[in-house]
Design a protein that fits this description.
The structure holds 2 protein chains of 2 kinds. Chain A is α/β, with parallel strands linked by helices. Chain A folds into 2 domains: 6-132 and 254-280, Response regulator (Rossmann fold); 133-253 and 287-354, Response regulator (Rossmann fold), CATH 3.40.50. Chain A has 11 helices and 15 strands. In chain A, the strands form 3 sheets. Chain A has a 7-stranded mixed β-sheet with strand order 12-10-9-8-6-7-15, with helices on both faces. A 6-stranded parallel β-sheet of chain A has the order 2-1-3-4-5-11, with helices on both faces. Chain A is globular and about 60 Å long. Chain B contains 12 helices and no strands. Chain B has helices spanning 2-31, 39-55, 60-84, 89-107, 134-138, 142-160, 162-172, 174-179, 184-211, 222-232, 237-259, 266-286. Chain B is globular. Chain B starts with a helix and ends in a 22-residue tail after the last helix. Classes of the chains: A alpha/beta, B mainly alpha. At the A-B interface, strand 7, helix 7 and helix 8 of A face helix 1, helix 9, helix 11 and helix 12 of B.
């Protein structure tokens, strides 16, 4: 009887662990990236391409890539199928809009590992990942808040989504931490990539007395601020070459800090994809600032370094209470801080932001 | 409030110029009876090649001319296809968009996000201090004045000269024009190339004046707005000026309202130019005069043996 029980239990647990699908790669690891834009687009795709190059070095392998694959499930599937037919078994996507195609492919190819940046779909062999960009923006906000002379910061952003809103809010709270009089005028341009409208939006901000412009999109706001002799903060890649005089710093992605250990674990068989996706930040080294420019005062740089260390150690988050909305409503009381669920549901501006969250018409 | 209005009005030309240039080119082309849907592709080629030349040290003037020339060459390919070989104009136009996007994506790779010296606005000093209109009239970039000159000159050529009459005749009734001794194909080819040069200049404007940087896809649908603007202007260059100002004014109002923290119905605002175009399209029907102002032979290829 005892033996039967042992056998039954062994079978049961054996089966469940099999059901948990301990992921195993089929054959030699072969990695491929799929980019939404051009690999050198000085933005999102380039930040991933930089990671790709670092991975090639760290893992001592060649990593293939496809560029300009639009966010259409059929097009993404073609790229995935092509790579898999050529023997690739670790596929890294780089777009929110790839989510469905990646989930579909993950179900069809259980022995291929899928990773997707900014995606929202996950599976036994698919893990989406995104970075706590607001941590970098908080640090950038501290610098911007201390160098502004008009106490007016501005930010050119894409769409009113939580992962953009927390950039705006993080930047604002960083500025307020060093300069309680600072405000941040945020404008959504409703595109990820239109330097013409971003330039014109930046000009509109400068007309209002803004003297530090941050870009959540392309380099255009940095270029424009430079032309008008104002300061700027870049994003995604180091934008200092576009604002040699006025660029303070850039908030940078270091995707390799997440991807190298993840791919390593896929290769050695210890990968356990998080069913809610990976969410990495300063602690993992996935977010950071570019070298501060000379116009950032030394005492501010020191303060930023201290805050950076505190975030890294988990002693501080940019959204430690009290967090107030624009209208003064309390989001979270002192002593607590926003959890991940609340971050992903961030559909409001914090106090200090000038601008209105679009709510439809 | 006055400061806001002045700031806003001062930016009208900057928004309107690229639309107006492309629209003017398309009007000439369509007046000759060739439907050119390739504006987006021609603009992107103009933008990329001008930045390429300027970044490589060719200087601004050469950059502007080079951008126009590159777009003209692409339009020549289109012209040969639709005028000489009588390919379908709609499809060929779409091919031009794909070609322009593709060529600039490959060739422009090395020039993406490279800092260039662009064209700045004039500083008119005392003239700029004239209340209300000082900055609007005197403190624009040089290409805005060139644009205005091109459109007025274009209107004069089209409406007040013999050459313009012949060109319009080709667009209205090529057979009759042919009998009268007008070289229909030659006329159409010239019109297509003018549209190429002007769309190219519109792209140059976006890259060298508006954003001072080249990135892929930066024309971002403005070529299509120009196509709509032609219909809005009902193929009349003077009406196109007002159309471009309305389109440009609407586009520049949104970021300015947002910058002062106003609650703006963004999506509704972005839709307005298209909604207005639709209304303008419907207007003749609403008034019961369905006779369209489009050139009668627009989009039809001309074969001499079909002459009636």
């Amino acid at each position: 009887m005892k033996n039967i029980l042992v056998v039954a239990l062994t079978l049961f647990f054996g089966m469940t662990s099999a059901g948990m699908a301990e992921f195993k790669l089929d054959g030699e690891p072969k990695i491929a990236f799929i980019f939404h834009g051009a690999a050198d687009n000085a933005g999102w795709a380039e930040s991933h391409n930089n990671a790709r190059l670092k991975m090639e070095e760290a893992l001592d392998t060649r990593i293939a890539y496809a560029e300009n694959i639009p966010e259409e499930t059929t097009k993404v599937r073609q790229a995935i199928d092509l790579f898999i037919s050529r023997g690739h078994n670790i596929i890294v996507g780089t777009s929110f809009g790839y989510g469905d195609a990646f989930l579909e492919a993950a179900k069809q190819y259980p022995n291929v590992a899928f990773l997707n940046a900014a995606g929202t779909t996950n599976h036994d062999n698919l893990e989406s990942f995104y970075a706590r960009t607001y941590e970098g923006w908080y640090l950038a906000g501290m610098i911007a808040g201390s160098v502004t002379e008009t106490n007016k910061l501005g930010m050119v952003a894409g769409f009113p989504l939580s992962l953009v809103n927390w950039d705006i809010n993080g930047f604002t709270r960083g500025a307020l931490a060093v300069n309680p009089d600072a405000t941040n005028s945020a404008i959504f341009v409703n595109t990820w990539y239109d330097p013409v409208i971003e330039t014109q939006t930046t000009e509109a901000l400068l007309e209002q007395g803004v003297d530090v412009v941050a870009t959540d999109n392309s380099t255009a706001p940095v270029v424009t601020a430079e032309r008008y002799g104002k300061k700027s903060v870049g994003y995604q890649v180091d934008m200092a070459p576009h604002g040699p005089k006025g660029n303070l710093t850039s908030v940078l992605f270091h995707w390799e800090a997440h991807l190298i250990p993840t791919v390593q674990s896929i290769i050695d068989g210890s990968w356990e994809p998080n069913p809610y996706g990976a969410f990495v930040g300063i602690k993992e080294g996935a977010i950071g600032l570019a070298d501060l420019s000379e116009i950032a005062p030394a005492d501010v740089a020191a303060k930023v370094a201290v805050t950076h260390a505190a975030i890294k150690a988990g002693e501080l988050t940019p959204f430690d209470g009290p967090v107030l909305k624009q209208n003064g409503d309390v989001v979270i009381e002192a002593g607590a801080s926003l959890d991940d669920g609340q971050l992903w549901g961030m559909e409001y501006f914090v106090s200090g932001v000038v601008g209105t969250m679009p709510t439809g018409l | 409030m006055e400061g806001f209005l002045i700031n806003w009005i001062t930016t009208f030309p900057n928004f309107a110029a690229p639309l107006l240039l492309a629209c003017m080119g398309l009007i000439i082309c369509e007046r000759a009876g060739v439907l050119n849907l390739g504006a987006e592709g021609l603009m992107v080629v103009g933008a990329m090649f001008s930045v390429m030349i300027i970044y490589s040290g060719g200087g601004i003037l050469l950059g502007v001319v080079g951008g126009m020339f590159a777009a003209t060459m692409l339009s020549l390919v289109f012209g040969i296809a639709v005028v000489v070989f009588r390919a379908d104009q709609v499809l060929s136009g779409l091919v031009v968009v794909a070609l322009g996007t593709g060529i600039t994506g490959i060739v422009g790779r090395a020039y993406t996000h490279k800092p260039i010296q662009g064209i700045e606005k004039f500083d008119a000093g005392a003239l700029g201090d004239i209340p209300f209109i000082g900055r609007l009239v005197f403190e624009q970039d040089p290409l805005v004045y060139v644009t205005l000159f091109i459109v007025i000159a274009g209107w004069y050529l089209l409406m007040r000269t013999n050459w313009g009459l012949r060109l319009r005749a080709v667009g209205e009734d090529p057979a009759t024009a042919d009998i009268s001794g007008v070289d229909v194909q030659g006329m159409r080819l010239v019109a297509v190339m003018i549209s190429g040069a002007l769309c190219g200049l519109a792209g140059v404007y976006l890259a060298v004046v508006s954003s001072q940087v080249w990135v892929e896809h930066m024309v971002a649908g403005r070529g299509w707005i120009a196509v709509a603007l032609v219909i809005f202007a009902r193929w009349n260059p003077i009406r196109a000026i007002f159309g471009a100002l309305i389109f440009g004014g609407a586009e520049s109002l949104t970021p300015r309202l947002l910058a002062i923290g106003a609650d703006v119905p963004v999506y509704l605002m972005n839709m307005l130019p298209y909604a207005i175009t639709l209304l303008v399209l419907l207007w003749p029907y609403i008034r019961g005069r369905a006779a369209s102002s489009a050139p009668s032979s627009l989009g039809h290829e001309f074969l001499r043996q079909d002459r009636h």
